[in-house]
Amino acid sequence: MNKIIVLFIYFFLFLNFLKTNCLKQDGCHHALNDRPVIGILSQPASSDKYKEYGYQYIAASYVKYVESAGARVVPILYDQDEDTLRKLLNSINGILLPGGGVYFDEQPIYNKSLYLIWNYVIESNKRGDYFPLWGTCLGFEEIVSVAANTFDVLTSFNASNYSIPLNLTDQVLNLSSNSLLFKEMPLEMLKTISNEPITMNNHRMGLSVETFNNFTSLHQFFDILSLNDDKSGNTFISVIESKEYPIYAVMFHPEKPLFEWYEKEDI
Ligand SMILES: *[C@@H]1O[C@H](CO)[C@@H](O)[C@H](O)[C@H]1NC(C)=O
Ligand SMILES: *[C@@H]1O[C@H](CO)[C@@H](O)[C@H](O)[C@H]1NC(C)=O
Ligand SMILES: *[C@@H]1O[C@H](CO)[C@@H](O)[C@H](O)[C@H]1NC(C)=O
Ligand SMILES: *[C@@H]1O[C@H](CO)[C@@H](O)[C@H](O)[C@H]1NC(C)=O
Ligand SMILES: *[C@@H]1O[C@H](CO)[C@@H](O)[C@H](O)[C@H]1NC(C)=O
Ligand SMILES: *[C@@H]1O[C@H](CO)[C@@H](O)[C@H](O)[C@H]1NC(C)=O
Q1: Measuring from atom 9 of ligand 5, which residue has the nearest CA?
Q2: What is the CA radius of gyration of the chain?
Q3: Taking the model in full, what pTM does it have?
Q4: What is the CB neighbour count within 10 angstroms for residue 28?
Q5: Does residue 22 fall inside a structural domain?
Q6: Which of 65, 136, 246, 253 is 20 to 30 A (C-alpha) from 260?
Q7: pLDDT tens digit sequence for 30-45
């Protein structure tokens, strides 16, 4: 697949994330900020290869991804003290939680920042201060775990190094639904993302539809925008969107085919 086409599709997806500058319940009364500042949460270095350079990191591809949609990026160090973190949150317009390999349930400091960010996002949006949150892969898993307030919502999937098309749900395809993320995506792009293997998955955990349906905190809060089968035929939720707030999460990696050139991966 031509990288330029993929670039446009993902560029568009993130642009929508930034631009859907209104809460569903109150319409679009807010002025559009076309120079938003997006925070990206760092992670503890997960391998010895990373640790050579420092104890925490942000993969460059996420920064490029956000910048390619016209936003600016500030790093949010996961181990910042609470006051600094709050001050930082008050100074930015949204947050991206990247993919990675953190066992966040074993990282109390990281976990604490994650909850603080989540509560901040909910509180801001509740009082009408539009504050989007995006999760990619691990970020998806973090969002659903924190929303459900348990890490037990995650189960194993066989989806490493696995590029597939999205299987969009009626929530996207039914024009009378009010889903936001794909709403303004041109039909040609929707066709491409639905037919070409351009969504790169690289996860061993995920969220099943059964778990989603079992947890009120999940199915009352999110809509499922896309479903996919893993390599073993088990269905995982690949894209979700909050029913009420600008909170979006994808299991695939939009930033990888665009900004990571690594021949050992299927990108
Ligand atoms: C993560 O933080 C939440 C909220 O403070 C807490 O309830 C939970 O026990 C923490 N989990 C872990 C694994 O530290
Ligand atoms: C489309 O969505 C509307 C509103 O949610 C619903 O009433 C209708 O049944 C849906 N149609 C299909 C084909 O799913
Ligand atoms: C969902 O709930 C049912 C009924 O309580 C239970 O039997 C099943 O194991 C649960 N499944 C998951 C994946 O949580
Ligand atoms: C993908 O979509 C088709 C058509 O809507 C559906 O029959 C199929 O079960 C879906 N696959 C998954 C993994 O949800
Ligand atoms: C994952 O899928 C691959 C390809 O279908 C298969 O060879 C492998 O055994 C599966 N792994 C697990 C743990 O099921
Ligand atoms: C990932 O998939 C690609 C394409 O199928 C393959 O060439 C590559 O060897 C795989 N890498 C790993 C680490 O499995």
Answers
A1: 232
A2: 17
A3: 0.90
A4: 12
A5: no
A6: 246
A7: 567 788 999 999 999 9
